[in-house]
Structure formats: structure tokens, C-alpha cells
Design the sequence.
């Protein structure tokens, strides 16, 4: 019961922070809208436009964020006949977790990694790279997929998906305002010689651009923290709860950690989704800004579970 | 007059409480049925895989007659037991699982067989089905324990007795190796 309570609390927490994240995004766009509107002396029109944009963005990221992330990662959906073993393993774990069968994707890359995404367990997808698929035996694959299914069950996927889309949107906006400030600057100079308002609009654009320039790295840091150690440790522990075989995941993590191949499908916006950090291969250096706990620590915790009692025979 | 109203209020309140408990039990029983249906899907799948497996193995290890016959017989018995209630079915399926495991262990000694694509595919399907059965069984036992407790605790046990909510049988794990599971702590 204690375990169940832990993950039910965790689900509730994830739902809350997901809503908070959406509010934050709307508020942020609202401020930008007000600033832009102010430049043309109609702040409320700016806010209204921004709220509409935010609404559309949030709807799109909630309902299509997973497709966007999968497309960005060049993931291809597979059927059972494409890889029966992978499909079977995922099906087994969805039964174990009492969840519907997620969609299964393969990323054609040699770097070993995997992630899960979606808005809830009824609309979830798991993706794995070809490299990882070829490296792992059945027990290890089961461990990795159990970790991903735990993220699905815990609603980590919803929060991580919104975070990824939001990071992407902020980077885009930042880029957009820099360009506007730059080209607006040229136009503004011409206008300021003939009329008045143009200079004010340009100044606001520059301020907004600066704001985003400051904000982008902060958001990047937020993303780093979005996947806290707690989330990953909890997913590791829940994975063991499902498979009853800690060594499977432990040796899979070891294989992933031992492979230096970089993953091209991952970006700053999506790095936190993966089972092991695909961007920075700095090894085991642990810091406040790490998206993932050090792998050696995760493996140590799993092996500690294994030694507590003899593992059950792995099917 | 006021006394009548109070009595009426008490009766309505009681009826609501009874209805609430009854509905709760119905929901739980439905969950148990669903969990059992999930196991059943996998058991059927196991039955469907066996004839194919026996045929494939015969070609390479025809002299393992007793093992093959054991599996075939256990399958036939398990299929008969489907209509004889969960107790019989669980027993027959456990026996079939044991017979299958025995066969698969013995097949490790045949390298030719282990190179056969058809056999490898069957082996994957079979071991996956075994895993699905054991995961579905875990789920069924959790749900059923929950339901059984509900039918036994006061005051629900009165409602359960009145409307025939009988406790369901758990699928106990007989294999000692399967019984042990690591403890999970956070």
C-alpha cells in the first residue's frame, strides 16, 4: 500500500505542475502581448491576442505535443510483425502496470536510448533507438520498457511533454523577436525621421527581445530540473516493482552509460525525456543542473534492491 | 407528525447507504471479472500456441515422447477445465505451465532446434505469453484481494451476504521460485 500511495501522490503532483506550467506559459505570453500592444498604445488588444495565441499553443501542445516530439526525434511507429519481441515486452508490461497498450516507435540511430511521451496513459507512446534494441537482451529490454511504462503510469509523460513543447516555443519566440528587433530597428530609424510612435515600438521590441534572451537560458535550466532525480529514481523503482528483476534494468543502464555514441535525434528541448541524458555525456558528474541522476548511483540503488532478496526467476 | 418525518428520513438515509455499498461491491466485482478475463485471453493464447510448438519440436526431438505427451495431455485437461470453474482451471493451468517449462528446458539441449526461426519465434511468443499470464495473475490477485476484503468487512459483509457477493478464489503461486519477490522501497 505504501508504494501505491507514493505513486498516486506523484500522479496528483504531476497533474498540478502540468496545470501550473500552462498558466505560466499563458501569463508569459500575456506579458509579451501587453508589451507589444503598449508599443502601439493598445495594451489590452495585445493581451487579448496573446491569450488567444497561448490558448491555441496549449491546445496544440496538449493534443499534438507527443506527435511533434516523435516527429522531431525521427521516430517511426511499428507493428507487431516489425519487431515481435519489442512488441511483446511492451504488451507484458502494460498488463503488469494495468495500463492500455501504448504505441511503439523505433528511432533508427545507433546511440542507445529510449523515451516515453503522451498526455495520459490512454494516449501514450514509447520510443526506442535501434542501437539500444540491438544491444539489450530480453531481460534488459524489459527493464528499460518497465522504466518507460512507469513514466507513463506516473503521468511524468504529460509534464515532460508540455515542458518540451514550451521550451521549443520559447526558443522560437526568442528568435522571432530578435529578428523583429533587428529589422524593426532598420525600419524604425526610417520612421522616426518622419513620424513619432515608431521609435517607441522599436524600443519595446528590443526590450522584449532582451527579456527572451534572458528567459531562454532560465527556461533551459527549468527543463534541466523538470526531470528531477526523484522522478527518475521513482521510475527505476516502479520498474522493478513491475518486473521483479532489478538486474535487468541495472545492466541495461550500464550498457547505455558505456556507449559514447551521441544521439542526433535529441535536442535541448527533448533531452529530459530520455532514459539517460543523451546530450551531455559528461559521465557521472553530478550537479544541481543535471537532468538525470548519475547512472552509477541509479545502478547502485538497483543492485541494492537485488541483493535485498534473491530475484525471482526471470521469465 | 415530526416523528414520522424523522423515521422516513432515517429509512431514506439507510436505503441510500445500502445502495452506495451495493454499487461499490458491484464495481469491485466487475473489476475482478475484467482481471480474470485478461488472464483468460492469455491462457487461450497459450493453448493456441501449443499444437504448433509440439509439431515443430517433433521434427527435431521426436524421441522426447513423454515430455511432448505430457504437454499435449496437460493442454487437453486445461481446455476441459475451462468449464469446471476457476478452482479446477487454476489447477490444470498450473500443471500445464509446469509441463511447458519442463519441455522448454529440455529443448536447450538441441542446437539445431534453437537455430530454427520458426521455433525461435514460437519460443518468444510462448515466453511472452507466460510473462503476460504471470503479470495478469498479479493484477488479478491484487484486485481480488481488494474485493474479498470488501465483502468481509463490517458493515459491507451484511450487504454482501444479502445480495450474494461471495469471495473469489485467488490464483496462489505454487512455484517456490516464483513466490519470492524483491521488496521495493522508496
Sequence:
Amino acid at each position: 500500500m505504501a508504494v501505491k500511495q507514493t505513486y498516486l501522490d506523484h500522479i496528483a503532483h504531476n497533474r498540478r505542475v502540468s496545470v501550473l506550467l500552462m498558466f505560466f506559459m499563458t501569463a508569459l505570453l500575456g506579458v509579451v502581448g501587453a508589451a507589444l500592444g503598449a508599443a502601439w498604445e493598445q495594451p489590452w488588444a495585445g493581451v487579448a491576442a496573446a491569450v488567444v495565441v497561448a490558448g491555441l499553443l496549449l491546445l496544440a501542445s496538449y493534443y499534438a505535443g507527443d506527435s511533434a516530439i516523435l516527429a522531431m526525434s525521427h521516430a517511426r511507429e511499428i507493428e507487431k510483425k516489425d519487431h515481435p519481441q519489442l512488441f511483446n515486452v511492451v504488451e507484458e508490461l502494460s498488463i503488469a502496470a494495468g495500463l492500455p497498450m501504448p504505441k511503439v516507435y523505433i528511432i533508427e540511430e545507433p546511440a542507445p536510448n529510449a523515451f516515453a511521451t503522451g498526455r495520459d496513459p490512454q494516449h501514450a507512446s514509447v520510443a526506442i533507438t535501434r542501437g539500444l534494441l540491438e544491444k539489450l537482451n530480453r531481460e534488459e529490454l524489459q527493464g528499460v520498457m518497465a522504466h518507460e511504462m512507469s513514466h507513463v503510469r506516473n503521468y511524468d509523460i504529460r509534464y515532460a511533454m508540455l515542458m518540451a513543447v514550451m521550451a521549443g516555443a520559447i526558443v522560437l519566440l526568442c528568435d522571432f523577436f530578435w529578428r523583429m528587433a533587428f529589422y524593426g530597428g532598420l525600419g524604425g530609424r526610417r520612421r522616426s525621421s518622419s513620424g513619432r510612435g515608431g521609435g517607441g515600438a522599436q524600443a519595446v521590441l528590443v526590450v522584449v527581445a532582451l527579456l527572451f534572451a534572458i528567459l531562454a537560458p532560465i527556461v533551459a535550466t527549468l527543463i534541466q530540473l523538470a526531470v528531477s532525480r526523484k522522478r527518475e529514481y521513482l521510475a527505476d523503482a516502479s520498474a522493478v516493482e513491475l518486473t521483479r528483476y532489478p538486474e535487468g534494468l541495472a545492466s541495461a543502464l550500464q550498457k547505455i552509460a558505456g556507449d559514447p555514441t551521441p544521439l542526433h535525434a535529441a535536442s535541448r528541448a527533448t533531452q529530459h525525456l530520455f532514459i539517460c541524458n543523451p546530450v551531455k555525456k559528461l559521465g557521472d558528474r553530478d550537479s544541481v543542473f543535471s537532468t538525470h541522476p548519475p547512472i552509477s548511483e541509479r545502478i547502485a540503488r538497483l543492485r541494492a534492491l537485488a541483493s535485498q532478496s534473491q530475484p525471482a526467476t526471470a521469465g | 407528525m415530526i416523528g414520522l418525518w424523522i423515521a422516513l428520513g432515517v429509512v431514506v438515509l439507510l436505503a441510500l447507504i445500502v445502495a452506495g455499498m451495493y454499487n461499490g461491491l458491484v464495481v469491485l466485482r466487475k473489476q475482478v471479472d475484467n482481471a480474470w478475463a485478461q488472464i483468460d485471453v492469455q491462457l487461450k493464447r497459450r493453448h493456441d500456441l501449443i499444437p504448433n510448438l509440439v509439431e515443430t519440436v517433433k521434427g527435431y526431438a521426436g524421441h522426447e515422447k513423454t515430455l511432448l505427451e505430457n504437454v499435449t495431455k496437460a493442454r487437453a485437461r486445461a481446455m476441459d477445465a475451462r468449464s469446471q470453474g476457476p478452482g479446477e482451471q487454476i489447477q490444470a493451468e498450473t500443471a500445464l505451465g509446469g509441463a511447458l517449462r519442463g519441455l522448454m528446458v529440455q529443448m536447450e539441449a538441441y542446437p539445431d532446434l534453437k537455430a530454427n526461426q520458426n521455433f525461435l519465434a514460437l519460443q518468444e511468443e510462448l515466453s511472452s505469453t507466460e510473462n503476460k499470464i504471470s503479470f495478469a495473475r498479479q493484477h488479478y490477485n491484487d484486485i481480488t484481494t481488494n474485493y474479498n476484503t470488501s465483502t468481509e468487512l463490517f458493515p459491507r459483509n451484511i450487504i454482501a451476504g444479502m445480495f450474494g457477493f461471495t469471495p473469489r478464489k485467488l490464483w496462489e503461486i505454487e512455484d517456490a521460485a516464483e513466490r519470492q519477490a524483491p521488496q521495493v522501497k522508496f
Notes: Chain A has a mean pLDDT of 80. Chain A touches chain B through 32 residues (CB under 8 Å). The two ends of chain A are 26 Å apart (CA to CA). Strands of chain A lie at 75-77, 103-107, 114-120, 123-129.
